[in-house]
Amino acid sequence: MKRIISSDFDRTIAQTFTPRPGGIGVVEASARALDQLLGSDFGHRAMCKIREPQRLAPRELVEQAIRLGNRTSLMNSARSFIATCNGSLEQYVPVGKGIPLKWNEMDPFPVLTETFVRLKLSHLMDQIGGAFDRGDLWPLPCPGFLEFWKAFLELKTGSCAKDDILDFGIISSGHDKFIERCFHVWGVQCTELMVTDDDMRSEAYAKFAPEERAKPHRMVFDALCRKLPQPEFFHDHLHKNGNAVHVGDSLCADGGLAKNLNIPFVWFDPHEELTGSPPDIFPVTDWKQLLPLLEKKSLAMLRKGLPLSQVLRTILNN
Ligand SMILES: [Mg+2]
Known about the structure:
Elements: E1 3-7, H1 26-38, H2 42-49, H3 58-67, H4 71-83, H5 109-124, H6 145-157, E2 166-171, H7 176-185, E3 194-195, H8 197-200, H9 219-226, H10 231-237, E4 244-248, H11 251-261, E5 265-268, E6 281-284, H12 296-304, H13 308-316
Parallel strand pairs: 1-2, 1-4, 2-3, 4-5, 5-6
Magnesium ion is lined by residues 8, 10-12, 248-250.
């Protein structure tokens, strides 16, 4: 029986919300993108008023920003801007993901979001790999992630006996090319298993409501399962039998996803107040705490059919 670890990216794998000195982070890049799309300094003013913008999926952020201004004049600015793009923002999203930058008067939010994402990436991609004074590269990996990831890769592709019981996928409201470049500058192979906002903006998901296309809705996890070999098998059995776990920093988005799937939640670097006593929450502050999951003893337990939550409880003494 195959098991899967799914993980959030921002603030769980990479410290993307901490800009390097002199550089810009995700929040500033978002403000600049909204300025370009919606006119003058509107984006910066809106970003100051939006609560915890880093926690919002791109579409939610665009919708909240537009609610803060004069809709007609903002739409006019956006329509004019998009008409001038002419393929200049093509490179930021993989072919087949996202949508074309074509204005749609009846439903402008998909193209507004698409343009916003591409503009944000145009500001951010060059930041990746920028050096801090002490030589570290932006963005820093979250504590222990590289150690965990190298051990995982060794397990999957190393010279020792290959173990195929565990898979690792990313579920993020971020973007493929950004995530891939972060792994590249860290000098490690990126996971091929990934569902990002780029997937969720694409035509294949256009018929679903925006809230269904983001965490905590389970559709993002189902989309990840569809990318696995034998998708039907995983889709039907993964979460039902305790064969998956989700790791993330947001109690609402990531914890909510785990709750909706009825799978254990590894709460990375908890900084929110936990209310009540929900089952199957495992707080960790460093990915190294999960390294024992990749050791022989744990893998043997998983192979015997023990649920991931039980194995996690054993290794984290929870
Ligand atoms: Mg996060």
